[in-house]
Amino acid sequence: MDKKKNLTFEPKSGWLQLKDKEINDVMKYNEDYKKFLNVAKTERLAALEIIRQAEEVGFVDINKILEKGKKIKPGTKIFVNNKNKSIGLFIMGKQPLENGMNIVGSHIDSPRLDFKPNPIYEDGHISLAKTHYYGGVKKYQWTTIPLAIHGVLFKKNGEQVNVAIGDSPEDPVFCVTDLLIHLSKAQMQKKMAEAVTGEMMNVVLGNIPLKDEKEGEAVKLGVLSILMDKYGITEEDFLMAEIEVVPAGDARDLGLDRSMVLSYGQDDRVCAYATLNAIIDIEDPEFTACALFMDKEEIGSYGNTGMDSYFLENTIHELISLEGEYSALKVRRAMKNSKVLSADVTAAYDPDFPEVMEKQNTCYLGFGVAVSKYGGSGGKGGSNDANAEFLAELRKTFADNDVAWQIGEMGKVDAGGGGTIAYLLSRYGMEVVDCGTPVLNMHSPNEISSKVDNYMTMKAYKAFMK
Ligand code: MN
Ligand code: MN
Questions:
Q1: Proximal ligand: closest to the CA of 136
Q2: For the chain, what is the mean pLDDT?
Q3: Ligand 2 centre from 267 Cα, in Å?
Q4: Which of 138, 211, 301, 428 makes an SS bond possible with 335, Cβ 3.0 to 4.6 Å?
């Protein structure tokens, strides 16, 4: 007996696990994924695109079904739009809902810069906008790069205005400045966290002063008059608006072999797209398939569009009532009997920073979808530690469906840590495990994923939900 082969475990690159011609599927999948990234720059835009693609394959708005009042049958495809920021897609199973769902839960918000309520000002004959960063960002990474602005305002009369500037090739872009190296003697001595502060994250908007303006702030007025001409909005309309600043430009292939994707927003739209692509391809599942695309994960999952809300629970109450005779107990059972892949990215091994990784228990770019039994930090603190029984089921599902997968921890035991929406679902009694794509440069304006991992993430979710 070949003891080395039979007794030891040797991880293998996902690229080497692909079957003949599957490489074409990998590349095609990632072309569509890049298109998704380019249109889904914010949680609102992602939600819109998810509904568009879902409707194309027959998902129906739950409100339309509720209006008709007719009972739903197995195989029915339903979407639930939660305030244009988080979405649930459901395909009713052959089994009644109370027997549980197979849920894949991703999030569609990403770190970014949000306009402050009163953002626009002028200083040094430049007009700028003040921002408050959203989520965990290394602020210095967001300076000197082209930025785009996407958002929603309401005029006094209630009319909604959608703003999108910087992502069309003919558009201008925006920028946060950084100090020239020549004058950075003092800045360079500062800690990284202090060298660029939150109050320095101001976005350059314009430089042409309004002619004949004598009161001062002529440049700011120049910018405001352009906004009036283009969108019919005034400074006051910004006070209660939602304006998001994100890196401008499209997702790109990375590497001579075009094996990777370089783009903003891959945490967590890489898992969100995999979830969407998987459920779109499913017909008549045994158990109800549920794809969640949540908001606010990057700031703690709070708010009525985050996973900590009753969005899912409320929806299951509605679905139980649409399925047959309603009872609250059935809702409890539906939740308790469910299984969840918490679909979020994890850290891949970074060759430049080996000191924070433990090589034998880290995930590698290109080695397939990543399972994390537990997250948290410092002694598994705050982690949902998945049960071995559930993981054993998952192992079989992956083996039966040729899913290349790996398992690892996010960094060394005492290096730090992170969490996902997993714990918010596990409290119902659901079996939950973190399962997503490993990335480099996480939370930066240009995150890196490997195309084979992106594809295997989709394959894993499809195998789990079908
Ligand atoms: Mn995430
Ligand atoms: Mn994140």
A1: 2
A2: 96
A3: 6
A4: 428
Compute, in angstroms, the gap from residue 336 CA to the centroid of ligand 2: 27
The Å distance, Cα 339 to ligand 2 centre, comes to: 22
Q: Cα separation of 413 and 328, whole Å? A: 42
Model confidence band, residue 197 (pLDDT cutoffs 50, 70, 90): very high
Residue 242 Cα to ligand 1 middle (Å)? 21
Helix axis angle, 43-56 to 22-39, nearest 10°: 130
Distance 263 CA to ligand 2 centre (A): 14
Taking only the tens place, the pLDDT of each residue in 249-263 is: 999 999 999 999 999
**Closest ligand to residue 269's CA:** 1
Residues 6 or more apart in contact with residue 459 via CB below 8 angstroms: 278, 369, 401, 402, 403
Ligand 1 centroid from CA 456, angstroms: 18
Average pLDDT over residues 167-174: 97
298 CA to centre of ligand 2 in angstroms: 5
pLDDT, one tens digit per residue, over 392-446 is 999 999 999 999 999 999 889 888 788 888 899 999 999 999 999 999 999 999 9
Q: b/e per residue, 393-411, with b = 16+ CB within 10 A?
A: ebeebbeeeebbbbbbbbb
Q: What is the C-alpha separation between 350 and 214, in angstroms, rounded? A: 55
Q: Report the distance separating Cα 76 and Cα 82, nearest Å.
A: 19
Report cis status (omega within 30 of 0) of the bond before 268.
yes
Q: Give the number of whichever ligand sits closest to the CA of residue 270.
A: 1
pTM for the full model? 0.97
The pLDDT of residue 375 is above 90: no
Ligand lying nearest the CA atom of residue 106: 1
Across 329-357, b (16+ Cβ under 10 Å) vs e yields ebbbbbbebbbbbbbbbbbbbeeeeeeeb
Distance 267 CA to ligand 1 centre (A): 5
Q: What is the rounded CA–CA span in Å between residue 209 and residue 16?
A: 59
- How close is the Cα of 136 to the center of ligand 2, in Å? 7
